[in-house]
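User: Sequence recovery, please. Input:
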């Protein structure tokens, strides 16, 4: 997990800008003073549209709306259901027949719970996956005895022959069937992020280490092989669990988890919380909201308005079913109206994938911008100490310039752009993009 105590601050230029002081007129802050803005493009807040499970209507109904509005999104996909995936659901451990036999004389307890819960979906009978899901959830919430009873009951049925032979995945897996890796490659080329939601959508708090790692690592391996490293950055462990043990494994495999990212500078408000963004000593707030069929559209719009009324809030919207398919399915017509509302705030809100917002925040928190005077120009060096193969986004800089600079030519390497300056209570400034850890950025009048 990436953490740092470094806080980007405005780089106050003292003797380095003596050469520019003669150009300064009535500015309250020295020309060259530079900061990395809190959000990309100097916007007020960020919004990420995220979808769980990869059910077909997300792509048939919701994706065309976002394409029309040119809005990116993140899809957390179940990889085991996609044709061509190398890795599929399985139980790693002793023969399940031995586990079933042992359950006749040894009740489920703390010592055998994880093995039994991991094996439950693969006992060779239909309907057992529901018991796995229920037991994992109960165990996570501290209701161990109830979790043990759920497993004892399903193993008793397996021993007695009450269950129909076969294998049946959970509903989330079944509803994700239909998309192909070719479909995802095409959408990824348009800027959509595809991230891991495991191989089979299991209840991870109920998995032992080998089966937990199989679901996490092998889903990542298929995404890497099919879509490339950019799409192995983010993940969401199914059902939104924030189980400490699961997070400990998952955060070593994926740099960004929607479940939890415990940086000291980030406050997280999960979907179940009734808390709203307010005063905090954290630099950023990740505010997750999950609309259900009972959530009125005015409330959903209020989430956007609340984000606009704060300078540190990242609104992470979580969607599942669309048009009758999937959990808490929302009408695509409602999403169309909602996304248009978000789009109408484009001047103040940065709409970006889950992965890109995470990258930007970390680049800023690990970054610095240092400016100096070179003749009648300002040079800015922007850098961060992160792995450039993973953290490759440009950052947005705000640099104060002499008050007489009505327009400024910004050059970095072979790229050059003319930008009109603006004014605030501290002086004349420009907002511009720069690539960290590359050539100096040169600012010149005109």
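Assistant: Recovered sequence (446 residues):
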């Amino acid at each position: 997990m990436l953490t740092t105590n470094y806080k980007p601050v405005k780089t106050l230029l003292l003797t380095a800008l003596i050469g520019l002081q003669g150009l300064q007129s009535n500015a309250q802050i020295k020309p060259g003073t530079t900061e990395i803005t809190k959000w990309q493009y100097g916007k007020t807040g960020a919004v990420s549209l995220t979808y769980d499970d990869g059910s077909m209507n997300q792509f048939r109904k919701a994706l065309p709306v976002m394409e029309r509005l040119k809005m990116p999104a993140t899809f957390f996909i179940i990889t085991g259901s996609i044709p061509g995936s190398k890795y599929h659901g399985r139980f790693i451990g002793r023969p399940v027949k031995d586990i079933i036999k042992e359950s006749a004389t040894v009740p489920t307890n703390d010592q055998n719970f994880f093995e039994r819960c991991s094996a439950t979906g693969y006992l060779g009978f239909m309907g057992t996956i529901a018991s796995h899901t229920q037991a994992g959830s109960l165990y996570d919430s501290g209701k161990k005895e109830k979790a043990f009873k759920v497993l004892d009951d399903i193993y008793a049925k397996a021993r007695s022959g009450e269950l129909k032979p076969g294998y049946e995945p959970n509903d989330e897996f079944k509803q994700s069937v239909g998309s192909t890796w070719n479909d995802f490659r095409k959408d990824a080329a348009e800027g959509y992020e595809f991230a891991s939601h495991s191989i089979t959508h299991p209840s991870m708090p109920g998995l032992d280490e080998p089966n937990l790692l199989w679901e996490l690592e092998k889903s990542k391996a298929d995404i890497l092989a099919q879509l490339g490293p950019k799409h192995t950055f983010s993940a969401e462990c199914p059902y939104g669990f924030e189980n400490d043990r699961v997070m400990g494994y998952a955060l070593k495999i994926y740099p960004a988890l929607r479940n939890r990212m415990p940086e000291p500078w980030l406050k997280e408000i999960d979907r179940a919380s009734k808390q709203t963004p307010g005063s905090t000593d954290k630099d950023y707030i990740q505010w997750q909201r999950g609309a259900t069929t009972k959530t009125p559209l005015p409330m959903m719009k209020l989430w956007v308005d609340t984000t606009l009324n704060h300078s540190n809030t990242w609104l992470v919207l979580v969607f599942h079913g669309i048009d009758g398919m999937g959990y808490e399915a929302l009408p695509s017509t409602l999403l169309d109206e909602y996304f248009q509302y978000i789009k109408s705030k484009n001047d103040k809100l940065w709409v970006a994938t889950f992965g890109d917002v995470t990258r930007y925040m970390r680049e800023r928190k690990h970054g610095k911008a240092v400016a100096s005077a070179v003749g009648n120009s300002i040079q800015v060096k922007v850098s961060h100490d992160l792995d450039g193969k993973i953290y490759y986004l440009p950052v947005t800089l705000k640099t104060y310039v002499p008050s007489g600079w009505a327009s400024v030519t910004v050059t970095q390497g072979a790229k050059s752009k003319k930008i009109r300056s603006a004014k605030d209570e501290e002086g004349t400034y420009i907002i511009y993009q720069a690539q960290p850890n590359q050539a100096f950025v040169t600012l010149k009048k005109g």
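The two ends are 44 Å apart (CA to CA).
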